[in-house]
Amino acid sequence: MAQTAERVVGTEVRRKEDPELITGQARYSDDLAAPGMLWMKLVLSPFAHARITSVDVSPALQVPGVVAAFGGRDLAGEWAGPLPTAWPVTDDLKNPPMYPLATDEVRFQGEGVAVVLAESRAAAEDGAEAVVAEYDPLPVVLDMEEALKDGADLVHADLGTNASYTWTLTNGDVDAVFATAPVVVKERYVVQRQIPAAMEPRALLAEYAPAMGEYTLTTSTQIPHIVRVVLAAFVLGIPESKLRVRAPNVGGGFGSKIRVSPEESLALVLARRTGRPVKWTGDRSSDVLTTHHARDQIQEIELAADEDGRIRGYRTRLIANMGAYLLLVGPGVPLLGAFLFCGPYGGEAYHFECTGVFTNTTPTDAYRGAGRPEATYAIERAIDALARRVGRDPVEIRRMNFLPESDGPIPSPGGLTVDSGHYNGTLDKALELVGYEELRAEQRARRERGDAKQIGIGFSTYIEMCGLAPSRVLGSLKYAAGGWDAARIRVLPTGKVTAFVGVSPHGQGHATTFSQILSDDLGIPVDDIEVVHGDTALAPLGMDTYGSRSLSVGGVAVHRAADRIVEKARKIAAHELEVSEDDLEYVRGRFSVKGAPDRARTIPEVAFSAWTAHNLPEGVEPELDASAVYDPENFVYPYGAHICAVEVDTETGQVDVLRYAAVDDVGTIINPQIVDGQVAGGVIQGIAEALFEEAVYDENGDLLTSSLTNYEVPAASDVPSIRIDKTVTPSTTNELGVKGVGETGTIASPPAVINAVVDALSHLGVTEMARPATPERVWRAIQQAKGGAA
Amino acid sequence: MHVSVTVNGTRREADVEPRTLLVYFLRETLGLTGTNVGCDTSTCGACTVHVDGQSVKSCTMLAAQADGREVTTIEGMASDGELHPLQRAFHEHHGLQCGYCTPGMIMASDSLIREAGHPLAEEEVRIGLEGNLCRCTGYQNIVKAVVAASQEMHGAPASA
Q: CATH: 1.10.340.30, 3.30.1300.10, 3.40.50.2000, 3.30.365.10. Which one for A18-25+484-630?
């Protein structure tokens, strides 16, 4: 019986990905080797800003095992162009070129100045140590606000400014609304710089076949297809057809592997120049400098409201730190949040303005949520400030401002068309899940007793836009590529299925999720379905994985290709059963004749017929094979209510998360276990952003948080278990009804935590809390509120 | 220098540079790439293996120090085609996403459970694994998996 008995969508199928991962048989980029392989090591600038006066690689060439070494100028003729940005957000955007190695000037600590190739890891490291690079230090620009002042020192002297661009968005008569609103609250928040810190540092293997002129790059990336086109067309100047890019097992990404990197560029060129494979692995101490950083915004948000707290208008000004150069999508990251500074709330006017600024720091780019955590942080903090101003409860102020509840699309003040949402539903459930009344009672009791350890409760009723993205919208935002994705499905003659997909996972469980969709569509057991991804030769069409798009774009492409399989199979089945197509009924992999259910053909039977091709209907080609490319009409809009309860020690400033409830609506759920795993991971990452993680530079632009010992990625003992629940409101954007879940936790959680810390100390008069809310910051805020020396 | 180490029950010998770390001896000399490297400060625990039955971060130990000793890596955890209870539990409870930290987590958890000698509570697991970092799972399902495996390994009723 080929037909599967029950639907598997919506069930907790255990992951197909796991067997190789739990036994040590999985292959990550750094696990690969090739005969004759050389090890590559970069020499990085120790200075944040300096003129390069000389780079002498000759001492490296004396080191035993070193095969070659080059400074930036030695390789300057290799590049067809600089490493490009794909998102020039304005026509007058300033986009200074970044090459794989610097030649004249370095502009952040960690910028590469030379490269060494050697026969072993150790020899490459010795060789890099031996390179003598000399510098003439230049003034260092670190503070974004200082950088924008007249007469500021410049990161790029020839630009005459540190501002890269200013991008604006206006809906409605903002000035009139703010002029007439009886209540205006104005808040300023700093969203500190983050280091994404995927557990696997970036790594790669580059190979070149000279006789064929073919390059193969195996790299720890989220975006093999984009790497291929960008490296080939813009950096190397080779035919795209001569470059194959593979993403093997990838050890986490979170946006940090959305990159077309100097190391990939160098390794390919050097593989060609030496005629030998080139391997590079970024150790953690170089990874924290060279892999992009993230967030790092200064936000000013104003809400105009009626006296009762009903919001009428939103006005936001951002300064966003680009670091020293614009990376692949760096300038566009704030735009992904630009429409969301109104959260899931109503109103009649909206203004957003963002200036991207250069500093002598590691360039920034996407990190889990990209732009949306920043937006959510601003609005969820600001609505609490509004609640305090008008004397409302944080629950009440949210409920009265929610957008109308709807199963279908409705407009938002930010200019989006939200697919569906029932915001009170998630909030009701979260209040119950967290035990709200009990927590408030405990809070009152502790305040009355004057306990040293106080409780606070914080809310975040977020909405986000993901499923990147409708190509026409991306075009209107000046993004250089489309937002579609692709799938090709083959039903093999034996009834097994291979699905070739364009999205490229790094832990999300695509193979399992897509197999579940296909199993229901085609009636083939999950175990008989293979999902192939991460290889531009095998799955040549795709736009890769970011922005919670894999299911809501890639998964829909899979589903549509399966529909086309059924369409073709129906023709063959009707032909073999000698009935018209209309006389067939199709249920999960089985066509049967209406009124004669025993006369039937299954998908595997049809696949075999399609392969032998002995008796196909007129005009039907052999093979049961179909493709689909899906370009969404709209984004999808996950939303939810997260409630955090913290305990704050008012004597030490220590914050502990007591309870955390996440109730999300991510539309139709394919695999609840995988969805909950994404929520838990995302929430903890966001809690870490609120309480622990901050990239810190000293006044010279030296990164102080230069390893995992001082950049505080939390351990299990630092964080709680969270309570997770769902509501299900199908998306109206796609026929699967799916939204996205990869980023919701990280988007929602930071303001819930910080609002809770503020709430815990509100009786002391604390209204502001910088993040991360370290014990020192919390303690100082308490002292300041008490009027003591802080 | 010459080292002789029993790895996953088989004696392996090689000449290595004296500065070779155990993790690179395993990964690059022996080709046992299941043990991963996630930092260079002995913080992340991705490289955790067992040396004479105790968990060790193999980036903190020289191959030379393992001379004459017994090393177990993730590749040696399943026996006769049977997954180790921790491997089964990580799969069952979705205790992994990208899988990069997983070999180290499983090795550290195994010695934690064996050394405790009793089924572990959530808090014991969280404290016991504080030397192993995971960026994907938020630890929630890792903790569930290790608690469940500890119950199985110490004969307690397997209820999560």
A: 3.30.365.10
